[in-house]
Amino acid sequence: MSSLAALLDTEALAPHGVCLLWRPELLWLHVVSDALTGLAYWSIPVVLLILARRRRDLIYPWAIELFAVFILACGATHFLAVWTLWHPDYGLEGAVKAVTAAVSVATAIALWPLLPRLIALPSPADLTRANDRLLQEVAERREAEQRARGSEARLAGFFEHLGDALFVLRVAPAGFVFETVNPAFCRIFGVERGRTEGAAPGMALAPEAAAQLDRELAATLAAGHMRDWESTTDGAEGTRHWHTVLVPMPPDADGVVRLLGSLREVTELRRLQADLVETARRATIGALCAGVAHEMSQPVNIIGLWADRARATLEPGAARARRAMEVVLDQTRRLGTLLERMRDLARDASPGAEAFDAATAVKAAVEVARRAWALDRIEVRLEPHAAAPVRGRPAQLEQAVLHLLENSRDAVLARRRREPEAPAHIVVSIAAGAAPGGVTITVRDTGGGVPTTIAPRMLEPFVTSKDPGQGTGLGLPLVIGIARGMGGRLAWANWAEGRPEAGAVFRLILPLAAAKAAGAAA
Description:
Layout: H1 2-8, H2 16-19, H3 24-54, H4 61-83, H5 90-120, H6 124-161, E1 165-172, E2 175-181, H7 183-189, H8 193-196, H9 201-204, H10 207-223, E3 227-235, E4 238-249, E5 258-265, H11 267-312, H12 319-346, E6 354-357, H13 358-372, E7 379-382, E8 389-392, H14 394-418, E9 425-432, E10 438-445, H15 475-485, E11 489-495, E12 503-511, H16 513-521
Parallel strand pairs: 7-9
Antiparallel strand pairs: 1-2, 1-5, 3-4, 4-5, 6-8, 9-10, 10-12, 11-12
Helix pairs in contact: 3-4, 4-5, 11-12, 13-14, 14-15
């Protein structure tokens, strides 16, 4: 305590003004200089402290605060220098200088290690270049994002407007469910999109189709690669062929597995392929039939001629011999009819083609059938229809429809013999536009349908469901030949199986004259 009092004792000391001989110019030079320096020192820490408090994100804020304390101490030493010009408080001045020295040393010790880090800080030019690169990267990312959105929109449009049925299936705990389907899927299967999405295949598809799809989905997941297969469905429109493709998609971030599928109807393609094979086969059969008919015509004619002469020379009492000759003549005429049909099978149906209304020819054939079968108690009905211009020969189309009507009549009568109470109806309809660019002539009967034993070969020559001696098996092949000559085809199917009105439906599909002309021009 005595040493502190001695340090602060000023009795034996003189102020610095004595050293300056109290010369005013010297005094005020020191006063003004130290005062201005002290004020400047004390203003700088205020700025630094405000900056450090408001910008806490600045690097090393504690160094700024330490530097502010150092400057405050330096300013205090200058103010004490002015004070000691008149008051010899050198002990206080020394203490302040000691504090300033301590803060200065601490500041220096703290700043020197920071020097490499401060030098490593990027310069404004570096920051400008980095900012420019960042801006460029942001612009590129935005452009890539716009391209991605555009690509996504195009893919969405492709998904929505593609004619093939597209669907995405998700593997859920309970099994496979539709995550999304496109409008073509809803149109083909006759389902609503809102009810299909989130539902299992069994809720949207027929049981057989759903079961097959489940099997193929499991096989695709097990194989881990694309699978495709073809399937068929039978309906009122006949047999339809489908080509299905399943592709496994990579699992998403949540591990959910999805499958992308597409379904395309290839009925027309398979029909064209079958037509090519069938055309070649029928050409061979036609050539063979033409040759057989040519070679057999003369012997048959000679047999008939001599049988007729032999019958004319028989005595009136030779009834048994006369009956034998009549049987020979009857079978000869039947054989001649068969040979004529074989010639028709080999003839080209296209010469002499002209544009005409198919409805007129069909109506004429229906009227002929009505008059001819008036006593058979069979209802033959032609449904309301519009005009259907086609190209070909009206007589041949009428002949083709009559062949179909005769087959239906025979089937209805055969069923009536087995089931006397069975309905006896034949309905003919003409629908333009039922097939794209074509007209469909449909003959539907209640004859019970085609037996399964001959169904696969129903349209082949010499195949018939009638009893031996009752049919030649050339009626439907002749219809097919006429249809092909007009650029069309014949299709058939059994319908209403298991019900009283069960029967067969034959569809004669012909191109409209305008559509055929447009296709030829293209």
